[in-house]
Amino acid sequence: MHSYKARITVTLRPSILDPQGKAAHRALTNLGFSTVQEVRVGKVVEMVLHEPSLEAARAAAEAACQKLLANPVMEDYAVTVRRVPEIAAAS
Amino acid sequence: MHSYKARITVTLRPSILDPQGKAAHRALTNLGFSTVQEVRVGKVVEMVLHEPSLEAARAAAEAACQKLLANPVMEDYAVTVRRVPEIAAAS
Protein backbone atom coordinates (compact mmCIF):
# COMPACT_ATOMS: atom_id res chain seq x y z
CA MET A 1 0.00 0.00 0.00
CA HIS A 2 1.19 3.48 -0.79
CA SER A 3 0.04 6.92 0.26
CA TYR A 4 -1.68 9.11 -2.26
CA LYS A 5 -3.04 12.57 -1.91
CA ALA A 6 -6.20 13.36 -3.84
CA ARG A 7 -7.23 16.94 -4.41
CA ILE A 8 -10.87 17.25 -5.30
CA THR A 9 -12.24 20.55 -6.54
CA VAL A 10 -16.00 20.90 -6.38
CA THR A 11 -17.49 23.89 -8.18
CA LEU A 12 -21.02 24.94 -8.93
CA ARG A 13 -22.04 24.26 -12.51
CA PRO A 14 -21.80 27.36 -14.68
CA SER A 15 -25.59 27.52 -15.02
CA ILE A 16 -26.12 27.61 -11.25
CA LEU A 17 -26.27 30.97 -9.53
CA ASP A 18 -23.43 31.44 -7.04
CA PRO A 19 -24.45 33.91 -4.34
CA GLN A 20 -21.22 33.42 -2.39
CA GLY A 21 -19.22 34.30 -5.49
CA LYS A 22 -21.43 37.32 -6.13
CA ALA A 23 -20.88 38.53 -2.58
CA ALA A 24 -17.11 38.10 -2.90
CA HIS A 25 -17.17 39.93 -6.23
CA ARG A 26 -19.08 42.84 -4.74
CA ALA A 27 -16.75 43.00 -1.74
CA LEU A 28 -13.71 43.00 -4.01
CA THR A 29 -15.21 45.77 -6.12
CA ASN A 30 -15.87 47.81 -2.99
CA LEU A 31 -12.24 47.28 -1.96
CA GLY A 32 -11.07 48.75 -5.27
CA PHE A 33 -10.44 45.58 -7.27
CA SER A 34 -11.95 47.01 -10.42
CA THR A 35 -10.39 44.48 -12.81
CA VAL A 36 -12.26 41.51 -11.38
CA GLN A 37 -14.96 40.41 -13.81
CA GLU A 38 -16.39 37.34 -12.19
CA VAL A 39 -15.93 35.34 -9.01
CA ARG A 40 -17.09 31.84 -8.27
CA VAL A 41 -16.55 30.00 -5.03
CA GLY A 42 -16.32 26.26 -4.60
CA LYS A 43 -14.74 23.84 -2.22
CA VAL A 44 -11.59 21.82 -2.28
CA VAL A 45 -11.22 18.51 -0.48
CA GLU A 46 -7.80 17.05 0.16
CA MET A 47 -7.69 13.39 1.08
CA VAL A 48 -4.86 11.07 1.99
CA LEU A 49 -5.54 7.50 0.92
CA HIS A 50 -3.62 4.26 1.35
CA GLU A 51 -4.13 2.34 -1.85
CA PRO A 52 -2.14 -0.16 -3.89
CA SER A 53 -1.92 2.02 -6.98
CA LEU A 54 -2.53 5.46 -8.37
CA GLU A 55 -5.45 4.09 -10.35
CA ALA A 56 -7.05 2.63 -7.23
CA ALA A 57 -6.59 5.92 -5.38
CA ARG A 58 -8.18 7.84 -8.24
CA ALA A 59 -11.09 5.42 -8.40
CA ALA A 60 -11.69 5.76 -4.65
CA ALA A 61 -11.56 9.56 -4.83
CA GLU A 62 -13.98 9.61 -7.75
CA ALA A 63 -16.35 7.31 -5.91
CA ALA A 64 -16.16 9.54 -2.84
CA CYS A 65 -17.17 12.49 -5.00
CA GLN A 66 -20.11 10.67 -6.48
CA LYS A 67 -21.36 9.27 -3.20
CA LEU A 68 -20.72 12.12 -0.81
CA LEU A 69 -18.63 15.11 -1.72
CA ALA A 70 -20.37 16.52 -4.78
CA ASN A 71 -23.98 17.08 -5.70
CA PRO A 72 -24.10 15.94 -9.31
CA VAL A 73 -27.18 18.01 -10.08
CA MET A 74 -25.57 21.31 -9.16
CA GLU A 75 -21.84 20.72 -9.02
CA ASP A 76 -18.92 19.64 -11.14
CA TYR A 77 -15.84 18.06 -9.67
CA ALA A 78 -12.28 17.45 -10.74
CA VAL A 79 -9.86 15.02 -9.14
CA THR A 80 -6.08 15.04 -9.22
CA VAL A 81 -4.10 12.36 -7.43
CA ARG A 82 -0.40 12.17 -6.70
CA ARG A 83 1.74 9.82 -4.74
CA VAL A 84 3.19 11.18 -1.52
CA PRO A 85 5.80 9.80 0.86
CA GLU A 86 4.42 7.36 3.40
CA ILE A 87 3.06 9.23 6.38
CA ALA A 88 1.34 8.17 9.51
CA ALA A 89 -2.36 8.88 9.58
CA ALA A 90 -2.96 12.32 11.03
CA SER A 91 -4.93 12.37 14.22
CA MET B 1 -6.05 44.27 -21.43
CA HIS B 2 -6.31 40.51 -21.48
CA SER B 3 -8.44 38.03 -19.60
CA TYR B 4 -6.87 35.87 -16.95
CA LYS B 5 -8.37 33.24 -14.76
CA ALA B 6 -7.01 33.00 -11.25
CA ARG B 7 -7.65 29.92 -9.17
CA ILE B 8 -7.14 30.52 -5.50
CA THR B 9 -7.10 27.62 -3.08
CA VAL B 10 -7.63 28.53 0.55
CA THR B 11 -6.95 25.78 3.08
CA LEU B 12 -6.81 25.72 6.83
CA ARG B 13 -3.27 25.67 8.18
CA PRO B 14 -2.17 22.19 9.18
CA SER B 15 -2.16 23.13 12.86
CA ILE B 16 -5.80 24.27 12.76
CA LEU B 17 -8.50 21.74 13.57
CA ASP B 18 -10.80 21.10 10.61
CA PRO B 19 -14.21 19.92 11.82
CA GLN B 20 -15.66 19.90 8.31
CA GLY B 21 -12.87 17.61 7.18
CA LYS B 22 -13.35 15.38 10.20
CA ALA B 23 -17.06 15.11 9.45
CA ALA B 24 -16.38 14.22 5.82
CA HIS B 25 -13.80 11.64 6.92
CA ARG B 26 -16.26 10.02 9.29
CA ALA B 27 -18.98 9.98 6.66
CA LEU B 28 -16.64 8.39 4.14
CA THR B 29 -15.60 5.77 6.67
CA ASN B 30 -19.26 5.00 7.36
CA LEU B 31 -19.81 4.62 3.61
CA GLY B 32 -17.06 2.02 3.46
CA PHE B 33 -14.15 4.13 2.26
CA SER B 34 -11.70 2.43 4.61
CA THR B 35 -8.54 3.57 2.81
CA VAL B 36 -9.09 7.23 3.52
CA GLN B 37 -6.63 8.41 6.17
CA GLU B 38 -7.28 12.11 6.41
CA VAL B 39 -9.65 14.66 4.91
CA ARG B 40 -9.31 18.40 4.93
CA VAL B 41 -11.78 20.80 3.38
CA GLY B 42 -11.01 24.24 2.05
CA LYS B 43 -12.39 26.60 -0.50
CA VAL B 44 -11.50 27.44 -4.03
CA VAL B 45 -12.14 30.83 -5.58
CA GLU B 46 -12.06 31.26 -9.34
CA MET B 47 -11.77 34.82 -10.60
CA VAL B 48 -11.72 36.27 -14.07
CA LEU B 49 -9.64 39.43 -14.26
CA HIS B 50 -8.92 41.90 -17.04
CA GLU B 51 -5.31 42.90 -16.58
CA PRO B 52 -2.46 44.00 -18.85
CA SER B 53 -0.19 41.09 -17.95
CA LEU B 54 0.00 37.77 -16.18
CA GLU B 55 2.12 39.39 -13.49
CA ALA B 56 -0.51 42.07 -12.87
CA ALA B 57 -3.24 39.45 -12.70
CA ARG B 58 -1.23 37.40 -10.21
CA ALA B 59 -0.54 40.48 -8.08
CA ALA B 60 -4.24 41.39 -8.02
CA ALA B 61 -5.25 37.86 -7.06
CA GLU B 62 -2.64 37.76 -4.27
CA ALA B 63 -3.83 41.11 -2.98
CA ALA B 64 -7.43 39.88 -3.02
CA CYS B 65 -6.37 36.92 -0.90
CA GLN B 66 -4.60 39.07 1.63
CA LYS B 67 -7.36 41.65 1.88
CA LEU B 68 -10.47 39.54 1.68
CA LEU B 69 -10.40 35.91 0.70
CA ALA B 70 -8.06 34.32 3.21
CA ASN B 71 -7.61 34.70 6.93
CA PRO B 72 -3.84 34.75 7.29
CA VAL B 73 -3.97 33.63 10.90
CA MET B 74 -5.77 30.38 10.16
CA GLU B 75 -5.46 29.79 6.45
CA ASP B 76 -2.90 29.27 3.73
CA TYR B 77 -3.59 30.13 0.14
CA ALA B 78 -2.14 29.29 -3.23
CA VAL B 79 -2.74 31.18 -6.46
CA THR B 80 -2.41 29.95 -10.01
CA VAL B 81 -3.14 32.26 -12.93
CA ARG B 82 -3.51 31.47 -16.60
CA ARG B 83 -4.48 33.48 -19.61
CA VAL B 84 -7.86 32.68 -21.12
CA PRO B 85 -9.52 33.79 -24.36
CA GLU B 86 -11.24 37.15 -24.12
CA ILE B 87 -14.71 36.73 -22.78
CA ALA B 88 -17.45 39.13 -21.95
CA ALA B 89 -17.95 39.64 -18.25
CA ALA B 90 -20.48 37.17 -16.93
CA SER B 91 -23.60 38.68 -15.54
Written overview of the protein:
Chain A is 31% helix and 41% strand. The first copy, chain A, is an alpha+beta fold and 91 residues long. Chain A has a single domain, classed as Phosphoribosylformylglycinamidine synthase subunit PurS (Mth169, Chain: A, 2-Layer Sandwich). The longest helix of chain A is centred in the last third of the chain and has 16 residues, at 54-69. The radius of gyration of chain A is 17 Å and the shape is elongated. The relative contact order of chain A is 0.33. Chain A binds chain B through residues 1, 3, 9, 11, 21, 24, 27-28, 31, 33, 35-51, 57, 60, 63-64, 67-69, 89-90, and chain B through 1, 3, 9, 11, 21, 24, 27-28, 31, 33, 35-51, 57, 60, 63-64, 67-69, 89-90. Strand 2 of chain A pairs antiparallel with strand 2 (36-51) of chain B, so a sheet runs across the interface.
Based on the model shown, name its key terms:
3-stranded antiparallel sheet; homodimer; elongated; Mth169, Chain: A; 41% strand; alpha+beta; 91 residues
Structural class of chain A: alpha+beta
The shape of chain A, in one word, is: elongated
- The value of Rg of chain A in angstroms is 17 Å
Strand order of the largest sheet of chain A: 2-1-3
Q: What's the N-to-C terminus distance of chain A? A: 19 Å
Short description:
The structure is a homodimer of 91-residue chains. Chain A is of the alpha+beta class. The first copy, chain A, has helices at 19-30, 54-69, and strands spanning 2-12, 36-51, 75-84.
Give the helices and strands, then pairings.
The structure is a homodimer of 91-residue chains.
Chain A: E1 2-12, H1 19-30, E2 36-51, H2 54-69, E3 75-84
Antiparallel strand pairs in A: 1-2, 1-3
